[in-house]
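Q: Please design a sequence for this.
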């Protein structure tokens, strides 16, 4: 009998078919996320769980997986999984790094350009039939080329954003837990600066840190007040990295010029006050949402499961200590 696997949402066909060759797969086909209760009810006989980045994989869920050997998250971020409990229970946890880096960096540039040049606002303007004539001061935005980009977290995605920014002749500053190695700094032409310098000098501040207790509300009222009044905040990391209430206030009172957000504190709920602001671009967490990348993410997640089924260490293991004797 084939080992049983639960997939919490319908993923693309190619990875799903690959998984079906080796496993008895249960896919949640409804067009909504599974509830924790539904996952718990399905899990007891499953060897593997392929979860989405928005599925909270709690201790309760992990403990209900009596045969569970791996949680393969269909995301690079894994803040939705209780990694400590998984490790205690000897359950492997994996993610999908690298394959979504360029796509998410592309989207970050779209946010930067979109908010600086008021793209969504202009689109709304045209659709509403408000465009009557060309005017010298119609919907003026801010230049992107030649400006200073401040990257918080020069990891995979942050560095891919830096490399794109070079094409716009931007000056790139970054801050991180520690400076990147020299070759990375040279490739990105990025300068390591203090937190204060990054916030006070940048025209665009973009966040690329994982969500952890340390990065929760990394940007709040104090940080927003340190930014230039002409600066923009870009967030394609995780919503809770920004204190949304403070951001609303900063946008409403002109503390900063605008924001581009792909992620929100309480997704998919968007703070209603954000919906009324013009100087903000709002996207529904689509950082990695291209056909090509979602297919690759599926293949990475499935290959991690297949490795475990073969008795191997999965390539994208996040808790390798479970394999140490
Ligand atoms: P990564 O390669 O691990 O990069 C994260 C960087 O942030 C690392 O250099 C890390 O340093 C640094 N960092 C960690 N804590 C920090 C702190 N407190 N202050 C400053 N820097 C800190 O991860 P990635 O692949 O670039 O992905 C980054 C995040 O993007 C993911 O965790 C995910 O949440 C988010 N994401 C969102 C989307 C989307 O759809 N919007 C798509 C993909 C990813 P260390 O390595 O030293 O810890």
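A: Design:
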């Amino acid at each position: 009998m084939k080992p049983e696997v639960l997939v919490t949402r319908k993923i693309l066909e190619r990875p799903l078919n690959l998984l079906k060759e080796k496993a008895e797969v249960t896919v949640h086909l409804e067009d909504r996320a599974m509830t924790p209760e539904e996952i718990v009810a399905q899990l007891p006989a499953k060897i593997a769980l392929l979860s989405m980045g928005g599925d909270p994989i709690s201790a309760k869920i992990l403990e209900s997986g009596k045969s569970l050997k791996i949680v393969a998250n269909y995301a690079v971020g894994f803040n939705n999984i209780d990694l400590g409990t998984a490790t205690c229970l000897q359950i492997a946890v994996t993610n999908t790094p690298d394959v979504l880096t360029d796509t998410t960096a592309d989207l970050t540039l779209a946010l930067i350009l979109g908010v600086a040049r008021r793209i969504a606002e202009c689109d709304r303007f045209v659709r509403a039939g408000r465009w009557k004539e060309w005017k010298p001061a119609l919907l003026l935005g801010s230049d992107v080329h030649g400006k200073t980009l401040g990257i918080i977290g020069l990891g995979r995605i942050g560095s891919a954003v830096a490399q794109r920014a070079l094409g716009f002749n931007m000056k790139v500053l970054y801050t991180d837990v520690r400076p990147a190695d020299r070759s990375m700094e040279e490739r990105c032409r990025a300068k390591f600066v203090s937190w204060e310098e990054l916030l006070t000098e940048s025209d665009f501040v973009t966040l690329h840190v994982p969500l952890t207790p340390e990065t929760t509300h990394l940007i709040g009222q104090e940080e927003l007040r340190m930014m230039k009044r002409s600066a923009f905040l870009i967030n394609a990391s995780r919503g809770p990295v920004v204190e949304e209430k403070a951001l609303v206030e900063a946008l409403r009172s002109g503390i900063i010029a605008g924001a581009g957000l792909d992620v929100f504190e309480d997704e998919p709920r968007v703070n209603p006050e954000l919906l009324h602001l013009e100087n903000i671009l709002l996207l529904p967490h689509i950082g990695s949402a291209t056909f090509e990348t979602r297919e690759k993410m599926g293949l990475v997640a499935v290959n991690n499961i297949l490795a475990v089924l073969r008795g191997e260490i999965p390539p994208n293991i996040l808790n390798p200590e479970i394999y140490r004797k």
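Q: Thanks. Anything notable?
A: The pocket of NAP is lined by residues 76-77, 97, 100-101, 104, 152-158, 176-177, 208-211, 214-215, 236-238, 262-263, 285, 287-288 (CB under 6 Å). The chain has two domains: 4-97+291-323, 101-282.
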